[in-house]
Amino acid sequence: MKEIISFASDFGLEDGSVGVVKGVINRVDSDLKINDISHGIPPQNIKYGSLLLMRAIQYIPQGVLLAVVDPGVGTERNPIAITTDWGLMIGPDNGLLNLACATVGGAKQAFLLENENWIIPHEGETFHARDIFAPFAAAYASGQLKLEEFGKELDLEDLTQYLIPLTDISDKEIKGEVLYVDHFGNCQTNVSPDELKDKNFQIGDVLSLTIGNQEIKAKWCETYQNDNDREVGIVVDSWGMVSLFVSNGNASQVLDCKDSSKVKIKVENSKLKVR
Fold it and tell me: Contact, 211 vs 255, CB < 8 A?
C-alpha cells in the first residue's frame, strides 16, 4: 500500500520550488498523493515550522511527513528520516521535526539519508529538498526503498531538539512569551489555561497584562468576540493555549508584539469581574 506524503516548507509559492519538489516525487511514482500542509512558514523560522508541524501531525493522514525549513542546507547538519508510531518523518536535523515526533509518542529510530541511488546528482548544495528529501520520501512511500536501506542508523540522543519555552510562575505573576502570530494577528502564548485557573482566574475575568512596555487590561473571553470591540482580549485557542486577540482586528499590530515578545500576567490584586 502506498503512503500519502504530507509536505510543509518555507518555500512560498512564487519561485516554483514547491512544484519542483512535488514533481520529483511524482517522477518516482506518479500515483503518490501529496498533501500540502503549508508553504507559508516564515523563511528560516525553525521555531514556527516545528510548532506548525506539532499541531498538524494530529490531523493529517498517517504516512510520510516531508518537512523543509533548512537555513543550514549544505552544512554539517544531517538529512534524516525518523520513524514514529504515526509514520515516517523526513527533513533536516535542526529541531524542525522533534515536536511533531513527541506529539505522536516520540522517535523510534532515525536514519541518515545517504543511499546514493536515491540522491539526485547536483552541482550546488542549496536544494536538498529536491535532491535528497523528496526522492527518499517518494521511494519509501511507494515501497521502492526500505528503512534499512536509507543509510546509517543514528543515535536518537544526538538529534537536534527544539523545546517550547516554559513559563515562569510566581505568587505575583505569570511570565510567558508569544510563541507565534497567526495570519489574523492573534498572538498565541506559551501560557496554558490551566496555569490561569491555578491562579483562580476564570472566563469573564479581566486580567492585567504587560506586553513589552505596555500595560493593558484584557478580558478572558470564550470566543474571538469581545464585548469591547477593538480592545485586546484573551481566549483559549484551538490548540489549547492562551492567545491574545482583538475582535475584528489585529492584536499583533495593536500591541506591537511579535514572535518571542514577553508577556507578564499580574496575579496579585489584578482581577476585575465583568459579567
Answer: yes
Domain of residue 109 covers: 4-158
Of the chain, the percentage scoring pLDDT greater than 70 comes to: 97
Residue appearing with cell numbers 516545528: 50
pLDDT digits (tens, 9 = 90+) for 137-169: 999 999 999 999 999 999 999 999 998 999 999
Same domain, 67 and 133: yes
User: Could you say which of 107, 123, 158 is where a domain stops?
Assistant: 158
Number of domains in the chain: 2
Q: Which residues contact 171 (CB under 8 A, 6 or more apart)?
A: 267, 268
Same domain (yes/no): 143, 237: no
Q: How many helices (H) and strands (E) does the chain have?
A: 7, 16
The partner residues of 4 in beta bridges, in order of sequence, read 63
Q: What is the pTM of this model?
A: 0.90
Q: Has residue 273 got a pLDDT over 70?
A: no
